[in-house]
């Protein structure tokens, strides 16, 4: 049923790869105009080009930005609103898993700080400037109501349970994303702004495959997966589409797991 996001305006971070890339294509397919954000300029230009080729009826803009910098986040939201006139959907998806991140004894402060700056502060800034923009969205039929919006933050299954291959800073950062999401959902519910976390299980994207860089590490993770396979980015993008669209109009503050059953069996 294409058209679930017809004429909506979405900003997607991490749009150059993995979940962000698949989600950008899916949202555009469903009729949304999309602001594509990534720190990797070449990658985000590629996503922009793909959307132009596949979905000529929607508009997209590529934006190079680092979500860990408040000024960059403010600027990317401003660019989106200036170009499209509003912001309906904010997908705070960009994140890192540092290849040297490990257990409490080995993880270093520089890894902890880098991870927290991108994964946690980046989501905070993204929520802050999205809320400010969504409050200015045109009102609903002259009733003085805000039309609000939908914010989706990418957490992880590790926000809810421990990981078999240690990655302490990453796990702590995703726990923070989920906690922040729940509080923002409570605080902004009456403004019509829904805030949800999507919690993917292990996926076949560069982020995880670079981390599980040996067969032994991959097997240690695979053994816990009921379906016996890593997930695909598109499978998470479909979950994000549900949270972005009016199909989820009574859903806020949730930890929406797309984990192939991992959390039921761990
Ligand atoms: P990916 O590495 O394929 O894509 C991440 C994208 O984010 C990249 O294009 C990268 O350039 C961009 N990015 C990194 N730092 C950035 C910054 N500071 N500013 C702007 N862009 C930045 O990874 P993915 O698997 O698609 O991960 C997307 C999200 O999903 C992340 O938040 C990740 O933690 C989360 N996640 C992934 C998995 C998994 O198994 N892959 C599982 C659970 C959660």
In words, what does this structure look like?
The protein is of the alpha/beta class and 266 residues long. The protein has a single domain (9-202, 233-258), classed as 3-Layer(aba) Sandwich (Rossmann fold). Helices cover 44% and strands 16% of the residues. The protein has 9 helices and 9 strands. It has helices at residues 18-29, 41-54, 70-84, 109-134, 168-188, 206-211, 215-222, 233-244, 262-265; strands spanning 9-13, 33-38, 60-64, 89-92, 139-140, 145-146, 149-154, 193-200, 255-258. It has a 7-stranded parallel beta sheet, with helices on both faces. A two-stranded antiparallel ribbon has the order 5-6. α1 runs parallel beside α2 (41-54) and α3 packs parallel to α4. It is globular. The site of nicotinamide-adenine-dinucleotide (NAD) has 30 residues, from α1 and α6. Nicotinamide-adenine-dinucleotide is lined by residues 13-14, 16-20, 38-40, 43, 66-68, 93-97, 118, 154, 156, 200, 202-203, 205-208, 233.
